[in-house]
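ingest -> fold -> write
write: protein_1
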Amino acid sequence: MTPVQRTEQAATWTAMVSRAYDHTRPAVRFGDLTWTGRELLDRAAGAADWLDVLGPEPGVPVPALVATSADALALVVGGAGSGHPLAPLGVRMTAHEIAAVVKQMPAQVVVAQPEFNDLAGQVARLSGRRVALVPELSSATRTLVARPDELAAVLHTSGTTGLPKPVPMTQRRLAARARVNGHLCGLDPDSFYGGSAPFHHIAGLGNIAVALAAGALITGLPRFTVEGWTLLRELGTTHTSMVPAMLETLLAAGEARHETLRTLQYGGAPVRPGTLRRTYEAMPGVRMLNMFGQTEGSPISVLTPEDHREAVAGRTELLRSVGRPAPGVEVRVADAGPDGIGEIHARAGHFFRTDAEGWLHSGDLGRITEDGYLYLLGRRTDMIIRGGENVHPLEVETVLAAHPGVADAAVAGVPDERLGQTVVAFVVPADPDAPPPPAALRSHMRARLSGFKVPVRWWFVDDLPRNANGKVVRRRLREPYEPYEPNEG
């Protein structure tokens, strides 16, 4: 290997992980299973060998139905270091939703953990692919290597049409993100990270990738529950991430205490002042961070632990902001009007999708105050952001309009204290005298869409507000004072 090649390899996420776990201390802990750092790397090498046997073309992302687990970590590390980058997909989505994404990918195989065998089979039939179930991964002594511009992994995020779009995470940029996020969160080899975000999400694999680069001990939960949080507390985790709605659930249950937690990272919605005060009462020494970003690039800005302490001391308006630019990030408000509001653009070395000049177009409208704090004011598009998940109205409306009892429909995002926004439907019934029961509409939707996309309230109207071109004017969709069957989905 030439000196240039050695320098290039050192600038990769794979090299960071390989250096961080060249030891015999615990590195991965799930239930009764514990791997040392060396065992993690050896299992990752075994995963790389298995991916080789599957035969995907070098550099082609491999769609995977996996949940947070030791094997999933080994697959990601092994895939990144062998030219077979993993592309985890949401196992809570329907087979039709997953197949639509898989069809856009060139790989002819879908990797799946055994517990997702049935789902994988449905996806394979719908997409014309074959399934490869993850075996018990053996150890190998293979050295994992990668070049800076090779793919480390691929995550998907929803685009303007509602079909999730791939976000390629190159080795160089993922390494840069790991350095920025690791510094902000205070992650190091003495840290113990445990989260509950879905593995395919930037808050899932995205945060785990940062912890891996820092050499932290890692665990995780398949989904958030109060019981799961109790387990993380008993294990002695030091770092985690969540959305404010989860925090409020813990507070309501009287289970928010966590004696060993050092850093709590959140996003997707602002935290309320009362919630923050109660969090500090439950965990007096915890560092709170709100990181604003998206799958295409994160963090853009950060509300620091010091900002949160100032908010508790009286500057509660800071909690409505998403902080100031993260280290190394340049932020601008593009095409700002007289009120200073425009689309937020950002530029940094750890963003994955940018224009020719390096700018990430966030799609968020916002303004920056004189003291540098960024305040978001909504989306340029009609996207609804519910608890950190993107919901596209057109996708929901298309499914809703397919119900035989619906003549026309539109959905809108309405403010929600816990989730940031929630989804509400406005339905023109096919028979005004006998509108379909909301429970029936919910069942129809849930069979075809993920739960977070299903409206929580249903309003029956005579018609929808449309402009001269026939397009729905969403800003004129307003809920009446009293909801129609407010407690039904």
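write: protein_2
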Amino acid sequence: MCAVTSETRSSVSPYAVFDRDSWRALAAGSRLPLDEAELRALATLGDRIDLDEVATVYLPLAELLDLHVAASRRLWAAQAEFLGNTTAKVPFVIAVAGSVAVGKSTTARLLQTLLAAAPGSPRVDLVTTDGFLMPNAALDARGLLGRKGFPESYDRRALIRFLADVKSGRDTVTAPVYDHQSYDIVPDEFQEVDRPDILVVEGLNVLQAGRRTDGTAPEVFLSDFFDFSVYVDAAEADIQRWYVERFLALRRTAFQDSTAYFHRFAGLTDEQARETALDIWAAVNGPNLRSNIAPTRSRARLVLQKATDHSVRRVLLRKL
């Protein structure tokens, strides 16, 4: 049962609001299909999560999504029978959106793992929109390298074409591959997506409506191809702190590789690294969050609201 909050009592809301206990109760008795080691392999650096959090938040979400997938299959079968055709079913597409450092990558990987463990062992693919960023050379030529992650830094036509092909039932659709170590697209490398049962699409701006260069709205939105969408939410001050903590951790690990794009930050002192991370947040990630990412929260079907310790404190589910 939904836990009624003062927000839901005092005003009409498009969301049903669940606290942690009421949300966890929805999957009471269900078994977690992963152990601590597997969870560690799925979690993004700095995203503090344990098996209890998975059982409380992500297992009920996966079971809810499984209901939606099953309902979609039943509707497809009924429609095929009504129309008298044998059109193949297309993948059920789930979007996962949210800021840098908020934990959306962990959410997407967890959903992929949990959904694949559902009855029938559906095939679940995961694609990140990082692969649809324009290559650094193209961004630099356009003066956009400092705005990487903003909507205009993506090849949105290619991303829309990819999703349109997936939703058309086309076999072997390909997505470009992004390498976080080199901070660039990997030339001539692609991820193949061949009609999975479920496709999870994760990215900063997947719910963003976008504008054409002339300021008009596009005819097609990315969200037109989504069957369900999740937004991972938190207070900006918390996300900023998590970003700085992750930057400091990367300085001690990935940035130590001499081939890494950000290797120049490896020798910074703690204070210098903290100041650098805050500068990057102030110039890039903060403005992108406020102008482009956070405004899309209301477009999501479900919102995971995180507390200051990365745990999800409540779940907002849009009413049907």
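write: annotation protein_2
The two ends are 16 Å apart (CA to CA).
The chain has one domain: 6-318.
pipeline exit 0
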